[in-house]
Write a structure and sequence with these properties.
Layout (H helix, E strand, L loop, with lengths): L9 H4 L12 H9 L5 E4 L13 H9 L7 E2 L6 E2 L5 E4 L9 H4 L12 H19 L7 E3 L1 H10 L7 H19 L7 E3 L4 H5 L8 H4 L5 E8 L2 E13 L3 E5 L4 H16 L1 H4 L9 E6 L13 H13 L7 E3 L2 E2 L5 E2 L4 H10 L4 E5 L11 H6 L1 E5 L2 H8 L2 E6 L5 E6 L15
Helix pairs in contact: 5-6, 5-7, 10-12, 12-15
């Protein structure tokens, strides 16, 4: 039963028989069609129910889903009690924010996170490719897509939490192969390899750009989460002549703007300890930008990333290209826990990062990660932003100039690797 766009309460409870064209509600109609009183009932898109002058369908669903009431559900058309307690209701939603709290309180929430790359390969091999072969009237002996080709499609053409776009890209390949066979251009088996994927799908849409973006100081890699899964974002900071100006761009929400101000205040309050000129703000303006300004961004997870970007800018030490981070900070530099750890780590894994800096209080969330991700990545659990800076920034080592004097130059260093059980601090 699809609930998207339902606005009339009578859709759930039915119409009273005094009205012309009265009929039972969709719950009773579905039970009549299925012919039993204990089916599994799928309520699709429960987060997209509307409300207007005809009533509030979400309020009517309270009686349907509440086990303390639904044994005596009363449809207006039947006007007798009907027992719904034996029905197993499963509702689906893309986000819980639009579901009214009283209705959400009646539900047990099960969150389904994004797939890993290996899981996507298995899903494509076991389900998507056979389904598309059947849809395009192709036989397995006419086309073969290698695992390396599937991985390249996943990395460079479909950066997503699910597999919907992956199936679309596989279907594009199938259509082109079917067209070539129908035109007589191909007489033997077509093997799609990683190198031949661009011939079918065109130029890649996504690139491994972390190393390129973080090569200069003032750019840090953060992690975010949305209703469609996690992702990575770059926070850039630059300095220009001025006087105590702070510019924030990238269509940031109020929470991220506050994080940027807290980050700058922390840096200004600890300039000597961080090796920064205490008077830098008197003669400079700071500009913090989060690229892709057409996309609104907000949330409490960018504090440590903004501090790292500012310190990287002012000290000239680039951020390591293999490091992603998430966490909020206080004015005293404490790193606070955030949500969506599993989705963020999976996004970092998809983007090729092998080290993730997380708040220490988020350590229990690591147990939710798949084994392949947990064993292939290193997690640094921190309590203070100083630990973040020690791990994230390229270490400066002295080098000798031609005149014999020492000067400091950035040098990439690798911190000791920690397992999931041993990960504590940088």
């Amino acid at each position: 039963m699809s609930l998207g766009g339902v606005r009339d309460e009578a859709e759930i409870r039915g119409h009273r028989r005094t009205y012309i064209g009265a009929m039972p509600g969709r719950i009773i109609q579905a039970l009549k069609r299925v012919g039993v009183k204990n089916p599994v009932f799928m309520l699709d898109e429960v987060d997209k129910i509307g409300r207007d002058f005809r009533g509030d369908p979400t309020s009517a669903l309270l009686e349907v889903l509440d086990p303390a009431q639904n044994h005596a559900f009363r449809d207006h058309y039947l006007d007798v009690d009907f027992d719904l307690s034996k029905v197993l209701f499963i509702a689906t939603a893309n986000l819980t924010e639009t579901i009214p709290p009283p209705l959400l309180d009646r539900m047990e929430v099960i969150r389904l996170d994004g797939y890993t790359e290996m899981e996507k390969v298995h899903i494509a091999r076991g389900y998507l490719i056979p389904r598309q072969l059947e849809s395009h009237y192709l036989r397995p002996e006419e086309i073969e897509i290698t695992d390396d080709a599937i991985r390249r499609i996943i990395r460079e053409y479909t950066r997503e939490a699910g597999v919907r776009n992956l199936e679309r890209e596989i279907a594009r390949i199938m259509r082109k192969v079917a067209a070539r066979i129908a035109a007589g251009e191909v007489t033997e088996k077509v093997t799609v390899t990683a190198d031949s994927v661009p011939d079918f799908l065109g130029k890649p849409r996504f690139y491994e750009e972390v190393a390129e973006r973080t090569a200069q100081s003032g750019v840090a890699t953060g992690l975010f989460v949305t209703t469609s899964g996690g992702g990575i974002l770059f926070i850039e900071a630059t300095r220009m002549p001025g006087q105590k100006g702070l510019t924030l761009t990238g269509q940031l929400g109020d929470v991220m703007r506050e994080s940027a101000k807290i980050a700058l205040s922390y840096v200004r309050a600890n300039t000597e300890r961080l090796g920064i000129d205490p008077r830098f703000f008197d003669t400079s303006d700071i500009h913090i930008h989060v690229p892709e300004g057409a996309i609104p961004k907000d949330g409490p997870s960018a504090g440590v990333t903004m501090v790292t970007a500012i310190v990287s800018l002012l000290t000239g030490r680039p951020v390591k290209s293999n490091v992603g981070m998430t966490g909020e900070i206080t004015l005293r530099g404490r790193v606070l826990p955030v949500g969506g750890i599993k989705q963020k780590v999976l996004a970092a894994h998809r983007a090729g990062l092998d080290t993730v800096i997380l708040p220490k209080r988020n350590e229990p969330d690591l147990d939710e990660l798949p084994d392949e991700v947990r064993t292939s990545m290193r997690f640094v659990l921190v309590e203070h932003v100083d630990e973040v800076l020690r791990e994230a920034l390229v270490e400066v080592k002295p080098s000798v100039r031609a005149d014999g004097d020492e000067q400091s130059t950035p040098a990439e260093t690798t911190a000791p690797e920690l397992s999931h059980d041993q990960a504590q601090t940088a």
